[in-house]
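dude i think i finally got it to work??
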Amino acid sequence: MASSWQGVQPPVAKQQQPVVVRHQSDDLWASSFVLCFVSIGSLGNSLNSLGKTLDSAAKDVDKTVTQAVYSSPLELLKDGYVVQLISKVGGKCLRVLERGQVDCLGEAGTSSQFEVVVPRPGVVKLRSVSTPQFYLAITGGYLIGYGQGGLDCEFVPSMTMGNYLVFESLASPGGVIGALPSGLICAPMQTPKTCDAAHFGIKYITSVRR
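look at this
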């Protein structure tokens, strides 16, 4: 005889979503990967910054060593050397502006830098680094910054007391480069070589001919 079951109908089992078991090691690995990625990025930035710092320091050392090796400022007037000429009375650098005007208000930048050109022993030309087609020249009683490299661009440098330099024009004997404390340029033919306005310090920047 068939028996009937009259108990409570069991509930239908619901389909369960798969359970993903995450091990603590997985989280640690992920965290370590992120940390490693960030660390590598930070290290790269640090190394890049360090590289720039070392490069800058190397250039400074090179300048310091170059200055120390030469006992006379005249020795810094070598062919291919790039230098700055610093006024004794104004403390600023001689510079050539875009249109060839000259003043003595330069600080940093290529406008206040000159490449030394030595056409023959004891004579120099000063070529503008910012405008290489221009040279300093004394012509018609004026100092100009757009000389074309001729005889009027040639100077005979000499040293004065205190290791300052004087630049006398070869084409206009007695005419020298000079600057007032205001930065204005002196009249070359009216500036004595012994005047402080005609005295310049020299700073080595680099060399374009190794």
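Residues 24-69 form the longest helix (46 residues).
im so relieved honestly
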